[in-house]
Amino acid sequence: VTMKGSLPVANIEIGEWTQIxxxxxxxxxxxxxxxxxxxxxxxxxxxxRWTVRSGNSTVINSSCTPQSSDVxxxxxxxxxxxxxxxxxxxxxxxxxxxxxxxxxxxAIIQGSGKWQIVSAPNTPxxxxxxxxxxxxxxxxxxxxxxxxxxxxxxxxxxxxxEVIITVLEKAYAGV
Length: 175
Description:
Blueprint: E1 13-21, E2 27-28, E3 38-39, E4 44-54, E5 67-75, E6 88-91, E7 99-102, E8 112-119, E9 125-126, E10 135-139, E11 142-151, E12 159-168
């Protein structure tokens, strides 16, 4: 994280970053740099304080009240970008029964994946709703819109990718 504290006046003021809360173990390029870079952050919520005092790197003027401001940010691992696979058109094998297909999304390496129905002419059945290559059965004629959703850390917004499966009705003249 690159910090963005106010720039102290050269040779008159000095600034310093201090951690107020959050996990330990991080490193900082320069505690006195207004734009210091903090690295080695792990999942959690951090609060850092930027304090500007009158003085310079060798002498602090104690007659002036230091000014400070806090910044809070949260860190989470981002999830893998989901790819739901190519749109598909299939023919219903029999107008009286239903058909199925196998989905072809990417594996979610970082985070977790889950299928989500956006819209459908009925409620299809997933073999495993968390599998990128789940079977999808109980399909009838119509358009199915599905999202492959990847979820990362608690502070990250889930990512989605949509696939459209169109099931065409087979011609049927009856008995």
